[in-house]
Amino acid sequence: MFYDVIIIGAGPGGIFSAYELTQKKPELKIAVFEAGYPLEKRHCPIDGVKIKSCINCKTCSIMKGFGGAGAFSDGKYNITNDFGGTLYEHIGRKTALDLMHYVDDINVSHGGEGTRMYSTSGTAIKKTCLQNKLKLLDASVRHLGTDINYVVLGNIYNELKDKVDFYFHTPIDRIEVLEDGGYRVSYHGTTKKAAVTHLAPENGPDTPTEAEEEFETADCRSCIISVGRSGSKWMEDICSQMHIPTKSNRVDIGVRVELPALIFQDLTDQVYESKIVYRTEKFEDNVRTFCMNPNGIVVNENTNGIVTVNGHSFEDPEKKTENTNFALLVAKHFSEPFHDSNGYGESIARLSNMLGGGVIVQRFGDLVRGRRSTPQRIKEGLVTPTLNATPGDLSLVLPKRILDGIIEMIYALDKIAPGTANDDTLLYGVEVKFYNMEVQLDENLETKYKGLYIIGDGSGVTHSLSHASASGVYVARRIAGMV
């Protein structure tokens, strides 16, 4: 098979690459290969009744499939260069912001028209934060909600499905550079659009026979890689095989806080997503809030077989809860001789999984008193958990320096949102944000191979829905000859 453009990964970067190419160059033949399932077939088996915790599905429908890991997020598109990645270092600040606004226009026109755009500009919260040694980062935030985000993705897919060949449940095994400068991708035999990997029942559900190790191939002039954070190990292997230079990135480690929504209501009503940074007195580490979900729920997340925690929120009033949740994260950068920042984060997450059988939950009051939480203490508390997690002791999991920073941050937040440091505030652990190693790319997000682009969170350049989507638009315009 031959295509003008092959896109690997149907997360936000890949989706917006395909969308922009069909808008600007409709005559191009385009294929998208995705390791996960179509949007309508993405279902997590956890129902809270029969299945209460992660069962380690072969393909995690929360992390993979059309829409990427952001499909079931709370759909926050932060329009800013202050956080979310370093895309602006490649394409310029103005261009990056313009593209993020363009992505917002597309989302609004595909089902997000009733959602609200929040902004930190002109709020009194910034001054209040500074008076308490906290910094509120500037941003405009479009909150779609998990439910509307799903609608938007569905509408975009419906527009693309007859213009683009989608291959679902079809992970790419190899990428080769052809003599004419094009590319060949190799994958296990699939059926177009249905795309089910051939497996051998007698060897178990996950073990292909040697006969079925034969690959099918597709060639293209240009190749866009957009595999997201869940594709970090795959991306590392590809860069190693193709001798594409990389450098270690950071890893963010922390907890997800859950408390009554009323405590943060003054902030969330004005800015919705408040990105607040605190510099600890003890170690001078930066601790920040991340992914705030007013009236939302706490959820499991499976990355490379490791169960971590995340949060969702909804636009539908009937799906709202009485709680707000957000992450408190500490970024760790490593220097020589250690390079495996993700491996460090994984080891901490695995320890949590070992002790708690998955995610651990602890009352803040129990943590500062040096005792583990018990089911009875959680039940008697004022905060009803929205995730079925194992009561335990996070001090047995998180390194002291990280835990000390989180405790300091909670007391700092208590000054601007009194009640944050209440005994019954719940802490879920661990939350880990894995970042791909940063791939060496030029100003066009192109590798040393002409026509091979790496975009989105898989490149290590972007860390958010808006930045990843904008990178997809930028590269599509580059291929279309518009940049």
| Strands ordered across the widest β-sheet | 5-13-14-17-12-20-18-19
* Portion of residues within helices: 25-40%
Number of helices: 12
The unreliable regions are 190-213
Rg: 22 Å
Shape: globular
Mean pLDDT: 90
Biggest sheet record:
8 strands, mixed
Structural class: alpha+beta
List keywords for this structure.
single chain, 8-stranded mixed beta sheet, globular
Structural features, described:
The chain is of the alpha+beta class and 483 residues long. It has twelve helices and 22 strands. The chain has helices spanning 12-24, 88-91, 93-112, 125-131, 145-160, 232-241, 265-271, 341-356, 364-369, 375-380, 400-416, 465-479, and strands spanning 2-8, 30-33, 76-79, 116-119, 134-136, 140-143, 165-167, 172-177, 183-188, 215-225, 246-247, 251-260, 276-279, 286-293, 297-303, 306-312, 323-332, 360-363, 390-391, 426-434, 438-439, 452-454. An eight-stranded mixed sheet has the order 5-13-14-17-12-20-18-19. Strands 1, 2, 7, 8, 9, 10 and 22 form a seven-stranded mixed sheet that branches. The chain is globular. It starts with a strand and ends with a helix.
